[in-house]
Automatic annotation (TrEMBL):
<keyword id="KW-0143">Chaperone</keyword>
<keyword id="KW-0004">4Fe-4S</keyword>
<dbReference type="GO" id="GO:0006779">
    <property type="term" value="P:porphyrin-containing compound biosynthetic process"/>
</dbReference>
<keyword id="KW-0411">Iron-sulfur</keyword>
<protein>
    <recommendedName>
        <fullName>Heme chaperone HemW</fullName>
    </recommendedName>
</protein>
<dbReference type="GO" id="GO:0046872">
    <property type="term" value="F:metal ion binding"/>
</dbReference>
<dbReference type="Pfam" id="PF04055">
    <property type="entry name" value="Radical_SAM"/>
</dbReference>
<dbReference type="InterPro" id="IPR006638">
    <property type="entry name" value="Elp3/MiaA/NifB-like_rSAM"/>
</dbReference>
<dbReference type="GO" id="GO:0005737">
    <property type="term" value="C:cytoplasm"/>
</dbReference>
<dbReference type="InterPro" id="IPR034505">
    <property type="entry name" value="Coproporphyrinogen-III_oxidase"/>
</dbReference>
<dbReference type="InterPro" id="IPR007197">
    <property type="entry name" value="rSAM"/>
</dbReference>
<feature type="domain" description="Radical SAM core">
    <location>
        <begin position="1"/>
        <end position="227"/>
    </location>
</feature>
<keyword id="KW-0949">S-adenosyl-L-methionine</keyword>
<dbReference type="InterPro" id="IPR004559">
    <property type="entry name" value="HemW-like"/>
</dbReference>
<dbReference type="InterPro" id="IPR058240">
    <property type="entry name" value="rSAM_sf"/>
</dbReference>
<comment type="function">
    <text>Probably acts as a heme chaperone, transferring heme to an unknown acceptor. Binds one molecule of heme per monomer, possibly covalently. Binds 1 [4Fe-4S] cluster. The cluster is coordinated with 3 cysteines and an exchangeable S-adenosyl-L-methionine.</text>
</comment>
<keyword id="KW-0479">Metal-binding</keyword>
């Protein structure tokens, strides 16, 4: 079982961000963390959690580093009995707010993996994206995390932005890989509804040849690609758990949980959530929903597709793809090695 915890507070709203986050609700922090604890207590009972059954915890956002470690203490006190030995516990952080003191506090609580929202080491690009940190802050944050004791450190990078060149992206990769990290998440800039970029669609400018070059460049430095956006000498167990269709608790505004074929959606408004964190909408998936999701997810990552979940027509199409060397078959599982074609392959199989 996995646990996702959503922290919705941010110092500033990035131009591309469509996540549930707030820059003007900091006065709700204590009440929000109390509501989180209340929901987690409820979910642990709903999921019939037993001691040492939680494999991973991921604290995302928003910006988890805007909340001081002391406010996380009761959350960790609650979860600790349920954590497996050596459970992966990740927290996202922004370089400007992840001070050495914050990193030490989270490390002492049990966080053993940090993911920094670096996005770029180019000053101009950071300004375009409305990021609140400088390139040097990212460098310092990674070094501070390593000094504190974190062995698993990840960076987020954004590509396909207007103005991106091979030289700019090469410098980003070179700088990132000069730091003590073992994971990179590389995301194409997407224009989402409700963001500052919504009326500026030209800000997203993906060039397939540049994307392929970027992916190869990262892999050539020893960071193997294990999902369309993720590379590393270390593979995030939390990410893999989602793709393996494991059950997960989703706590906080805008979070999503899954138990069997049921999905759970807490309230998305922070004030409403604080008032009633147990008001959670449910959605029941069909077996066909699950099967299709497994196909699409499996082709986007190293998990692959168990050929037994394919119907007769899909197996015939899979044989065509196998013959054309678009996918591979090993131990009864189909694997896709070009993740940029993942959705096209999935649509070909299932349409």
């Amino acid at each position: 079982m996995l646990v996702y915890i959503h922290i919705p507070f941010c110092d500033s709203k990035c131009s591309y961000c469509a996540f549930n986050s707030y820059v003007d609700k900091f006065h709700f922090k204590e009440n929000y963390m109390y509501a989180l604890k209340k929901q987690l207590q409820y979910e642990l009972k709903r999921f019939q959690a037993k001691k040492e059954t939680i494999e991973t915890v991921f604290i995302g956002g928003g910006t988890p580093s805007t909340v001081v470690p002391q406010l996380y203490e009761e959350i960790f006190d609650l979860l600790n009995p349920y954590l497996m030995k050596n459970a992966e516990i990740t927290s996202e952080a922004n370089p400007n707010s992840a001070t050495k003191e914050w990193l030490e506090g989270m490390y002492n609580l049990g966080v053993n993996r940090i993911s920094f929202g670096t996005q770029s080491f180019d000053k101009k690009k950071l300004k375009i994206l409305n990021r609140a940190h400088t390139p040097q802050m990212s460098v310092d944050a990674v070094h501070n995390a390593a000094a504190v004791g974190f062995e698993n450190i990840s960076l987020d990078l954004i590509y396909a932005t207007l103005g991106d060149t091979k030289e700019l992206l090469a410098k980003d990769i070179q700088t990132a890989l000069s730091l003590p990290i073992n994971h990179i998440s590389a995301y194409a800039l997407m224009i989402e509804e409700g963001t500052a970029f919504e009326n500026r669609p030209h800000m997203s400018n993906e060039q397939l040849s540049l994307t392929k070059w970027l992916f190869k460049e990262i892999q050539d430095h020893g960071f193997s690609q294990y999902e369309i956006s993720n590379f590393g000498s270390y593979q995030s167990l939390h990410n893999l758990g989602y793709w393996q269709y494991k059950d997960y608790i989703g706590a906080g505004v805008g979070a999503v949980g899954k138990l069997g074929l049921t999905r759970f959606y807490p309230l998305t408004d922070i004030e409403a959530y604080i008032s009633d964190p147990l008001s959670i909408r449910q959605e029941t998936l069909t077996l066909e929903d699950k099967r299709l999701e497994q196909i699409f997810l499996g082709l986007r990552c190293v998990i692959g597709i168990d050929q037994d979940i394919l119907n007769t027509q899909e197996r015939k199409k899979a044989e065509i793809l196998l013959h054309e060397h678009k996918i591979k078959l090993k131990n009864n599982t189909f694997y896709n090695e070009d993740y940029l074609l993942a959705d096209e392959i999935a649509l070909f199989l299932t349409s």
